Q: What sequence folds into this?
């Protein structure tokens, strides 16, 4: 994790983007496409996305800096890859620590490739792991408001987050799925292959053992990180979010 000024510097180092005209070459004649434009890094000919000419192009500085600058003390990280970026930030102070010593933070993601709009999730992090909390979980769902108000709403919601996370953590550590339930979770909800399921079973369900959801989560994230089959850290985070969303939704179904 980097200190606040390093996070700001990393955001400012992300390339800026522009929308350029698209021409169709027809029998040697260049015809302007009046409905679509190409999005590129400024000065580059590498097309990242094709959008309508009414598309409102926003720079990542506009998405990320207002939040980072409004939080007095923080550390975090920034990842950029081909028109996609995320900023993961953790404010400093005891008010941002939940029971168990984990820290409450935010993950802000944006894209100029039209893959996603501005997305904001709460994150809970310890030294060796982090959990991306789905936006539809009670207590976490009010964060995605205009980027100028993300920091303000985050600060206001911290006290709501703590009991919501406590409930999630309780279900994670107490519920031990059967092998049939594990298959529903991994192959049904997460849409992973039976090969990955078999790997978890072989390692964690031998000799009559039944791991809890937390142990399964850590093993799956560890395996994904080890495999490293991702073009960028952003795609790895998308996989982690998929796991988190499925497992938290599964855990919370037992708490209703």
A:
């Amino acid at each position: 994790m980097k200190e606040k000024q390093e996070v700001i510097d990393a955001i400012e180092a992300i390339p800026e983007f522009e929308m350029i005209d698209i021409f169709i070459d027809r029998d040697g004649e260049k015809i302007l496409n009046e409905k679509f434009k190409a999005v590129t890094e400024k000065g580059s000919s590498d097309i990242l996305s094709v959008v309508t000419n009414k598309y409102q192009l926003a720079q990542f500085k506009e998405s990320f800096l207002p939040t980072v600058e409004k939080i007095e003390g923080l550390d975090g990280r920034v990842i950029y890859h081909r028109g996609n970026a995320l900023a993961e930030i953790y404010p400093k102070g005891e008010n941002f620590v939940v029971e168990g010593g984990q820290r409450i933070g935010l993950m802000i993601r944006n894209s100029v490739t039209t893959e996603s709009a501005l997305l904001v999730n709460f994150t809970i992090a310890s030294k060796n792991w982090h959990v991306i909390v789905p936006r539809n979980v009670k207590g976490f769902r009010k964060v995605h408001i205009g980027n100028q108000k993300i920091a303000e709403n985050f600060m206001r919601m911290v006290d709501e987050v703590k009991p919501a996370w406590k409930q999630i953590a309780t279900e994670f550590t107490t519920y031990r799925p059967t092998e049939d339930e594990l298959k529903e979770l991994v192959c049904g909800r997460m849409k992973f292959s039976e090969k990955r399921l078999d790997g978890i079973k072989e390692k964690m369900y031998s000799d009559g053992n039944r791991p809890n959801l937390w142990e399964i989560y850590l093993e799956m994230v560890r395996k994904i990180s080890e495999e490293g089959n991702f073009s960028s850290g952003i795609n790895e985070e998308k996989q982690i979010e998929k796991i988190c969303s499925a497992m938290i939704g599964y855990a919370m179904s037992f708490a209703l």
